[in-house]
Specification:
Length: 226
Amino acid sequence: MRIDILTVSPELLESPLNFSIIKRARDKGVADINVVNLHDFAKDRYRSVDDYAFGGGAGMVLMIEPVWKAIEKLRSERDYDEIIYASPDGMMFDQKMANRLSLKNSIMILAGHFKGVDQRIRDHLVTMEISIGNYVLSGGELPAAVITDAIVRLLPGAISDEQSALSDSFQDDLLAPPVYTRPADFRGWKVPDILLSGNAREIDKWRHEQSVSKTKRLRPDLAGDE
């Protein structure tokens, strides 16, 4: 899978894209992730990519021309299934969306910055707008990293035990059940007996019941109780 991320601050993506599962997926060729510096597409010697908003108001806006140039260059090299704009006012990102995007061949993510990007980019080039929560960050780089991580870990070969991703929280609109490891008794805090029984069928039943209970308690919106 190919993921291209357009940003004005590529250094913010160096760490999250070069550790753990994402690094392993890149090293194995499972995911090809490319970070594009929008400053490289500026037309002046100061490499400017932002300007004041028409009509006034506080804050700067990503200019249309460098963003358009970057997108057009990438589109000349390959077709994209989605061109995503990471924005606080986009559709809320969730596991189902990550699952759908993991089935794509190529996606592009535009990391917003300043007061956002010229609306014409959103109107004419972007195909999806995604938010990771009802709050505002300094830029779209962290949301782009979050979206990328959630997608890449689902790709075949990214995780050694592929069944692990399928048992994550939200895969069935349920939170994951509690998990325990050795020792079975720590200072009197004991692991539930059922997990030590060796009865796989009863363990699966217990885990499902725990997931349902946990979801109702912590995320009633997922359980349909709101």
